[in-house]
Amino acid sequence: METERIHKTAVIHPDAKLGLDVTVGPYSVIGSKVTVGDGCRIGNHCVFDGQTTIGKNCQFYTGAIIGSPPQDKKYSESDDVELIIGDNNIIREYATMNTGTIDGGRKTVVGSNNLFMTNTHVAHDCIVGNHCILANVGTIAGHVTVEDGAILGGLSAAHQFVRLGRLSIIGGCSKAAQDIPPFSMCDGHPAKVYKLNTIGLQRAKVPPASVTSLKQAFRILFQHGLTRTHAIEQVIKDVPPCPELDHLIFFAKTSKRGLCS
Fold it and tell me: Which residue in 49, 104, 124, 165 is the catalytic one?
């Protein structure tokens, strides 16, 4: 820890662990159980608390509150819970992330290369993958899973226990009350599936043949009026297989809250 990188007004507990080349801005506070990886940049007026582990090269902007206790009435200060954050994440102004809960698996886990815009919130026991984006004031409630590459639009919210599928995108001001299918574009209150996220698939370099299979699967799942069980059976029977289709089928089969219509 190089003193010239730590502002004189920052309050850092002597038991906190800071890696190499970490920058801490004015009036930021870092608690005793916090570990910050190499190259992280912490802005001013940030608060890092709880049993929190942060990877390398993350950026935290003004007022970010990281590792605060879960907003759960069952939580006790003696609970052994934690927040784990990967590498290369950007956490913008006043974003908040809570630790896990005993009942929820004890951990909130955030992957790498994510962007959390201003005033976003990651609640207790969430699992966020890699390359995800939560736009301004996007909120995910407790126990939400966000798969790789998913995008949550500004002022949108995901209900507790909902899953946001891989490479899905949810329009601004939406309410995700059921699982958002992988590779989908959804919008509304509550959110509904509108079409396949073809642009996202192209950017992810998904092969054209796989995109064609997904288009066919989406028509069967969301336009033919079949029950989910029957629709999945028809997809398996009629659609040429590919890894992306396998993931879509698995996601649909394992949905507990149901898929967006």
Answer: 124
